[in-house]
Amino acid sequence: MTKILIADADVITLDGEGRVLRGADVAIADGRIVALGKAPPDFAPDETIDGTDRVVMPGFFNAHTHSPMTLVRGWAEDLPLDRWFNERIWVAESALEEEDVYWGAALAAAEMIRSGTVGFADHYFWMDRVAEVVEQAGLKATLAWCVFGLGAEQEIGGTTLELTEAFVQRWQGAAGGRIRTVLGPHAPYTCPSEFLARVAERARELGVGVHIHLSESEGQVKASLAKHGLTPVAHLAALGLLDAPTIAAHCIHLTDEDIAILAEKKVSVVHCPGCHMKLAMGVTPVPRLLEAGVNVALGTDGPASNDDLDMLEEAKLASLLLKNHYRDPVLLPGDAVLRLATQNGARALGFAESGVIAPGRPADLIVFDFDKPHLRPRHDLVANVVYAAKSADISHVMVDGQLLMREGELLTLDEERIMYEAERRAWRMVGQELRPVREYQA
Ligand SMILES: [Zn+2]
Questions:
Q1: HSE-up of 416 (CA within 13 Å, CB side)?
Q2: How far does residue 307's CA lie from ligand 1's centre (Å)?
Q3: Ligand 1 mean position to 250 CA, how many Å?
Q4: Ligand 1 mean position to 93 CA, how many Å?
């Protein structure tokens, strides 16, 4: 396998001590980082990347998205959550076809690689097509086929839990281990209790995790208390669902007891600040969750509610939103927010070794070109990345030691064809008679 040397670069390691190295080599072989600091004299690279004016750091892991929803980017604007679902999203999806999923995910993959994402947790329909994209793009992903448990005739693509289980088994560990699969029940407010209990049982039997939406609004919490006498978190815990390794998106409205449950069950909570602010949903209590020992990661959510898949922007938004919301400029100091966007996401997705630049770790990394006016001077490289850098400053992206982008050029995807096909499919989808596929009731 290719040996690559990034020579004489600055490196944000995100290691245990939070070291930032100046003028260091990063040597990569067999998909892993083999040396950091000074490359061994006998290291003979196939390719050398000049690290002058470059900053290397771990790549981003987007812990909650719906990548094929690139096709409905800009299709549901300036609406509250219930109308966002009922008037736009769950209407457009009545025209969704399997082939749309492929091109929507391919468009997302191109955007994600360009903005430094190396892995993502996806939750959508016809997920075999997303898996194909992941395989071709060279990314890592943890994929869930979204299912509501309302009977095949009410599901997009006519799926069932059994069919999504078959998907999980078909793709688990595929693409040299870059693809992981989990079950994807939509949410406690859409899925019947008996169905969620069955998902919990099947997750245990198959030894896989779960990816779900949780506690997005006050209305959902009230409805859950009225219906089950439990908060959405306590309801899922009572059904045994949180016993599986769980990725729980949003978790905005939480009681102290909910936080204790999430910590005890080792649930990974995904904060999606761009989506939360845009839909005026509130703020995930990140400081309280971190204090309780919960693994908190960051996600963009789908491009219909963000409207992009830019994790660098998401990290900046998370830092600014939380500091302002809690009136505490000391919150998430130093590289803390970069850890949420990289290694905590990697842990949530089941790629726990990623997210650190250190010998022995997978070479899932990105390189910034810092030879730009907005990145001078360089008092604090971490602050420059979080608050001043743009994702367009990213020049190289590498997953398992394979370059997916070199000097801004995508190496694994035909970007021009993808943009053409995705645009065409997006217009086809909304250019016909549409009907609601289900109704949102919190
Ligand atoms: Zn979502």
A1: 1
A2: 12
A3: 8
A4: 15
Q: How many angstroms separate the alpha carbon of residue 327 from the centre of ligand 1?
A: 27
pLDDT at 442: 72
d(CA 247, CA 184): 10
Q: Render 79-136 in DSSP notation, one character per residue.
A: --HHHIIIIIIHHHGGG--HHHHHHHHHHHHHHHHHTTEEEEEEEESSHHHHHHHHHH
Within 13 A of 106's CA, how many CA atoms are on the CB side?
24
64 Cα to the center of ligand 1, angstroms: 6
Please give the Cα distance from 337 to 298 (Å, whole number): 9
Residue 29 near residue 1, CB atoms below 8 Å: yes
Q: How far away, in angstroms, is 150 Cα from ligand 1 center?
A: 19
**Separation CA 102–CA 125 (nearest Å):** 10
* DSSP one-letter code for 362: B
Rounded to the nearest angstrom, the distance between the alpha carbon of 383 and the centre of ligand 1 is 29
CA of 25 to the centre of ligand 1 (A): 39
Between the CA of 38 and the centroid of ligand 1 the distance, in Å, is 43
Give the Å distance between the CA of 268 and the centre of ligand 1: 14
Output the CA 195–ligand 1 centroid distance in Å.
20
Show Cβ contacts of residue 137 under 8 Å, excluding neighbours closer than 6 positions: 106, 109, 110, 113, 404, 412, 413
pTM for the full model? Answer: 0.98
pLDDT above 70: percentage of residues in the chain: 100
Distance (angstroms) between ligand 1 centre and the Cα of 8 equals 40
Rounded to the nearest whole angstrom, what is the distance from the C-alpha of residue 374 to the centroid of ligand 1?
Answer: 33
DSSP, res 244:
S
Distance CA 365, CA 399 (A): 7
Residues 373-382: contacts with CB under 8 Å, at least 24 apart: 378/10, 381/10, 381/12, 381/20, 381/55, 382/12, 382/20, 382/334, 382/335, 382/338
pLDDT in tens, 350-360: 999 999 999 99
Q: How far is the CA of 303 from the centre of ligand 1 (A)?
A: 10
Helices 98-114 & 127-137 angle (0-180, nearest 10): 30
246/429 Cα distance (integer angstroms): 32
pLDDT in tens, 187-239: 999 999 999 999 999 999 999 999 999 999 999 999 999 999 999 999 999 99
